[in-house]
Specification:
about 180 residues, 5 helices, alpha+beta
Length: about 180
Amino acid sequence: MPPSAPSADNLLAQWQADEAAVRTRQRPDTGLAPRALFAGKTGLQQMQALLDGEGPPPPISETLDFVLISVADGEAVFQGRPQFKHYNPLGTVHGGWFATLLDSALGCSVHTTLPVGRGYTTLEFKVNLVRALTDQVPLVRAIGKVVHRGRQVTTAEADLVGHDGRLYAHASTTCLLFDLPQR
């Protein structure tokens, strides 16, 4: 008999613990990772270095209160805390907040697949908002996964879910891959 899924309360506690563990490794300052941190590393190694606190978290993560939780080959997970400061005039979390978390998970899932010396840029990004989100939901996760890896184009999909399994949005992207200029 397969093990049962954790309860929503247990999963929320696990998500909170995961975030606390990541935040203890993070540097206190936000900023841009120095180029030297990424030199000679694959995309997955670069993302892991950021997750390990070797570089500062990007400023957007502080502004919108979200954090990178995990990376693997072709996968990236971000966690966010919906807050009143993210509300639109209608009294729910602004769609741009959804989009930013999803875009981060999508782009970073693609980034994890890059060999040394390759880069990417987003060609297309689509978001479907399927449920309103308020600050009554304590945490959500944007889970990004690569769907297709090509030589020039890679596609990915991501879901924005709550600890209770509810889907709030889903998104897809198409990214152009290219050789980075030699420095």
